[in-house]
Amino acid sequence: MAPRYTLRFNGAAAARELRAAAARGLYHGAEHVLGESQEVVPLDEAALSRSGAASVDEGTLTAAVSYDTPYAAYQHERLDLRHAPGRTSKYLERPLNESVDQVRALLAAELRRALR
User: Fold this and answer.
1) Residue ranges of the domains in the chain?
2) Are 107 and 22 spatial neighbours (Cβ–Cβ below 8 Å)?
3) pTM score, two decimals?
4) Which domain of life is it from (predicted)?
């Protein structure tokens, strides 16, 4: 006679763990993009750089990277502005586009950890 096994699956707890892991992964991804953008954000008095932040809305599972100065969007969008060497406009868009694979990997790693 073959042995009998019982499997209990708590779907609600698993969903909560995966959602929390997804939020952590998104936060790590946003932090990565923030770090990459800090390397190219325009520097004058460093107020723009210091205003950078990463955040996650756990309810909607969305992440954001933002810079909070009155001129952040202006600096980001104006391609004709002069910046110090290595600093550039599109200081958030470019690092985000270049970091897609790393962000996916960070998110996947957190989800894998939650499934162990």
Assistant:
1) 11-115
2) yes
3) 0.88
4) Bacteria
